[in-house]
Amino acid sequence: MKIAVIGGGAAGFFAALSAKKHHPTSEVTVFEKSDKLLSKVKVSGGGRCNVTHACFKASELARFYPRGGKQLKKAFGIFNTNHTVAWFKERGVELKRESDNRMFPITDKSITIINCFLDEASKLGVKIKRQVCIDALKPLDNGINVVIDGFDHYFNKVIVATGGSPKLEGLKWLGDLGHALEHPLPSLFTFNMPEEPIKAFQGLSVQNSIVRIQGTKLVHEGPLLITHWGMSGPAILKTSAWGARDLAEVNYSFIAQVNWVGNPNEEDVRTLFYRHCYNYDKKKVESANPFDIPNRLWKHLIEKVEINPQKMNGELSKKEKNRIINTLLNDEYQAKGKTTFKEEFVTCGGVCLKDVNIKTMESKVVPNLYFAGEVLNIDGVTGGFNFQAAWTTGFIAGMLKQ
C-alpha cells in the first residue's frame, strides 16, 4: 500500500509514523512544500516545545477547544494525553509537568522532540520529500492521484495535514473536492492598545486577572502580561481563542475590561481594602499596596483615578476608595488590532468537521482521503492543547481505518 502524507509539521509527522506503525509493509511518504520540517515544534514554548497538557480525562480535555471540542471528546477516547506521554516515553523522551500543567521534555529543548520524530521516521523507513508543492488531488475508485508538477502520482491513501491557512484561498483545493469550509481566522492573538499608557509598563505581569470583552459574554481568567504593544498572557490568549470570530466581526476594535485582582466578588475586595486603609492609615497610598499586583502597576492605577499617591490611607474619602476599587475590578482599555505569533500562528476555521468521520479522520466526501491537525476546524487554547489535537488526529488518521 502506498500512503501520502501532505505536510511535514506536527500532525503530518505523527500521522506518517502512525501509518507506518499500523501498516509496516506500506510505503509512507511525507511531502513538505518548504525546506523546513516541524517548524512549529521548533519554536513552541519559547523553543522548549509545549508537547501537551496534564489533563488526563477525555471529557475535561475536550473543554479546552473553542472549536472541535465535542468531536475531539470521541477522538480522545482513542488517543489522549495518557497515550502521548507513553508514546514519547517508549522512545526515550521523558516529559515533565510544570506548575501550570503544561508538559515539556525534561531537556527543555524542542530539538529533543524533533530528533525523536526524525529518528523514528528513519527507523521505520518513512520517506520525506521537501520543497514539493501539491497541485491537486484527483479521487479514483480505489485510491487518489496526487498531482505534483503536473504529473499524477498514485496512492492508495492520502492524509492531508497542511496546517492552518490564514486565507480561505489556501483551502480552495480541498473545497474543490466538495468539502465544506469554515472561513479561517486568527486565534490565540494578543491585544494591541496603541493609545493606552499601560504599554509603558511592558514586562510587568499579574498572576491572577479576569478579562472581559465589553458587549460580549467572553470572560476568562489567568496570568496577564503587559507588552510594548498592549496585553498578552494566558488570560488574553484564552479570550482571543474563544472570541476569535466575535472579535473579527468588530475588526478587533473593542473595550477589554480587566479585573486586576482576580477576585470577582466586590465585597471581598472592598472589605480587604477598607481594613487595610484602617490598619495602615498613616502610610502613603503608593507605598501600601494590599493586593497581589506589582507596585508600579498599583501606583499607575492610583494616578489613573486622579488620586495623589502621596496621600495617606487615612485621608482617603469614601468616593476615592470606591474609585480605586472600581478600577481594580473593572479597568477599561481600548483595543485596536491584534498581534499574532508568526511561527506559532493558530487559526480557527478549516475543513468542516461534519465532512469528517472523527473516529477514523476519513473524509465523508472523498474515500481514502484523511485529515489531521489544524487543516480541520479544530483549535485549542494555549497550553499544549493544539499539539495534543495534532497527535490525536494524526495517530487516528494513520490507523487508516474505514
Please describe the structure with a list of short key phrases separated by commas or semicolons.
402 residues, alpha+beta, FAD/NAD(P)-binding domain, 2 domains, 7-stranded antiparallel β-sheet, 5-stranded parallel β-sheet, 13 helices, 22 strands, 32% helix, 25% strand
Structure description:
By secondary structure, the chain is α+β, with helices and mostly antiparallel strands. It contains 13 helices and 22 strands. It has two domains: 2-186 and 344-399, FAD/NAD(P)-binding domain; 189-339, no CATH class. The protein has helices spanning 10-22, 39-47, 58-61, 69-75, 81-90, 110-124, 172-175, 234-242, 244-249, 266-279, 295-304, 318-330, 385-399, and strands spanning 2-6, 27-32, 52-53, 95-97, 102-105, 127-130, 134-139, 144-148, 151-155, 157-160, 181-187, 190-192, 205-213, 219-226, 230-232, 253-259, 331-336, 338-339, 346-351, 356-357, 362-363, 369-371. Strands 17-16-13-14-15-12-18 form a seven-stranded antiparallel sheet. It has a five-stranded parallel sheet with strand order 6-2-1-10-22, covered by helices on one side. Helix 1 (10-22) packs parallel to helix 6 (110-124) and helix 1 (10-22) runs parallel beside helix 13. The protein is elongated and about 85 Å long. It starts with a strand and ends with a helix.
